[in-house]
Amino acid sequence: MLAECKVDIESARALILKTARKLHRGKDVTMDVSLCKYLSTEMCFRVAHRVVQIFGGRGYTKYRGIERFFRDVRAARIYEGTSQIHLLNIGKRLLAE
Ligand SMILES: Cc1cc2nc3c(=O)[nH]c(=O)nc-3n(C[C@H](O)[C@H](O)[C@H](O)COP(=O)(O)OP(=O)(O)OC[C@H]3O[C@@H](n4cnc5c(N)ncnc54)[C@H](O)[C@@H]3O)c2cc1C
User: Fold this and answer.
1) CA-to-CA distance for 52 and 12, rounded, in angstroms?
2) pLDDT tens-digit profile of 12-41?
3) pLDDT score, position 72
4) How far apart are CA 61 and CA 51, in angstroms?
5) For ligand 1, atom 41, which residue shows the shortest CA distance?
6) Catalytic annotation, residues
7) What pLDDT, on a 0 to 100 scale, did the predictor assign at position 61?
């Protein structure tokens, strides 16, 4: 599960860095930003979900703030554009292209 978390985190990091470089070159990153936000927030949720599982019953309690982390990352799929709205943005861009 830790290895899966690492793969998830590094995938999101790579996409964010690629988008930042594209933005730095003055390119349009409209779709890339939605890709980053969607991938990262879904990734964080998966990671938090695994961390709760790794710690078992303690992961569900206030032990080391794990349940707080789990609640916080859940909200990220809602604010600053819900996951569904970012998918809509990506779909619209793909169809336009
Ligand atoms: C912790 C937190 C902090 C926030 N901070 C801020 C802030 O600082 N400033 C601010 O302005 N707002 C903030 N918000 C509000 C947030 O931006 C909205 O909750 C968010 O935009 C979703 O709007 P809504 O809640 O009205 O859901 P709705 O728009 O009613 O959507 C409900 C559900 O339907 C889905 N949905 C909606 N339309 C479609 C569609 N066309 N196709 C498919 N699915 C769809 C959505 O993805 C969602 O799952 C915050 C929210 C949270 C939870």
Assistant:
1) 20
2) 999 999 999 999 999 999 999 999 999 999
3) 95
4) 12
5) 85
6) 80
7) 92
**Residue 88, ligand 1, Cβ within 6 A:** yes
- DSSP collapsed to 3 states, the chain: CHHHHHHHHHHHHHHHHHHHHHHHCCCCCHHHHHHHHHHHHHHHHHHHHHHHHHCCHHHHCCHHHHHHHHHHHHHCCCCCCCHHHHHHHHHHHHHHC
Go through the domains of the chain in sequence order and give each one's CATH number. 2-96 (1.20.140.10)
Query: Which has the closest alpha carbon to 42: 62, 60, 15, 67?
Result: 15
Ligand 1 nearest atom to the CA of residue 84, by list position: 47
pTM for the predicted model, two decimal places: 0.93
**Does any ligand 1 atom lie closer than 6 A to the CB of residue 95?**
no
58-97 tens-digit pLDDT: 999 998 899 999 999 999 999 999 999 999 999 999 999 8
